[in-house]
Amino acid sequence: MSSTRRASLLAVFAHPDDEIFCGGMLSNLSERGARVTLACATSGEAGKSHPSVGGVTDLGALRVEELRVSCARLGIEPPVMLGFHDSGRHERLRRDDARALMNADMLAVEAAIRKVILDVTPHVIITFDPHGSYYHADHVAVHRAATAAFWSTGMMGDEAPARLFYGMLTTEVFRKFAEASRGHGVVDDLDPEVFGMAPATIACSFDARPYMDRKLSAMAAHRSAFGLTLEMLRNPATPAEGMLRAFRPAFEREDFVLGGTRGAVRRWPLQDLFDDIPSSSLADSTFCQDPAGALR
């Protein structure tokens, strides 16, 4: 039988700023004593730089530093950068870059993630859903590689990851997010019935409202992406008010579906991501809730 050890979670994402959508759960778990590690596959260097940051000579370096600030504001460890290239989107798509995630050998991406798993021995891994949130090529690649790494680290025995979760939005929340951000969001023209999930699919639902200030502070760390600052958050008449209103449906609740498990799941839904993992040591949660919305 495995001995109890400090709870450990690994979040695997593609770009700086992907972490903010599950930032409430990450903060809560860190507060409760878990080791929370973020592995980021790229530096996001193919993204658009917000005009408010002026001329940027090295967007990738800036975005990595912003990610470090975001992690500090969420109360988790500094990020682990996997060193692949951002594939970009639309007119910025990097079809000819062999290191871009969309072109990279998935076994190489899996190996990079597996190396982090061997280092931090997470009980739990979270990553993108099979559609990569909104079908971003890099998100889909990270989903595939992280899922493969979960299964290929079974040779670790008692220290193998116990559970794999995918962060998702319910169909209802996805629809609200799409409507609120219409014309400005990345989910325009995406079918909520395809990219959202049914409530019965939720394995764990987290009420992130008590962590909204922290999540927005982390969002403001990514100024090159959103043009948001801490000063704007303190001003109720901020020019970013519309953007913040659009993100709120996707920020207030964090839902996860179960992508894999190496042990029995004795109740449904789970109280939290570590619920009933016998080898993990974690303080009790006060903010997890079931899909019906009742606080536990």
Question: What does this entry show, briefly?
Answer:
This protein has 296 residues and is α/β, with parallel strands linked by helices.
In words, what does this structure look like?
- This protein has 296 residues and is of the alpha/beta class.
- The protein is built from eleven helices and ten strands.
- The strands form two sheets. Strands 4-3-2-5-6-8-7-10 form an eight-stranded mixed beta sheet, with helices on both faces.
- Helix 2 links the parallel strand 3 and strand 4.
- The protein is globular and about 50 Å long.
Helix-strand layout with pairing:
Elements: E1 5-6, E2 8-13, H1 23-31, E3 35-42, H2 59-74, E4 80-84, H3 106-120, E5 124-128, H4 132-135, H5 137-152, E6 163-168, H6 171-180, H7 192-195, E7 204-207, H8 212-221, H9 223-226, H10 230-234, H11 241-251, E8 253-261, E9 280-281, E10 288-289
Parallel strand pairs: 1-9, 2-3, 2-5, 3-4, 5-6
Antiparallel strand pairs: 6-8, 7-8, 7-10
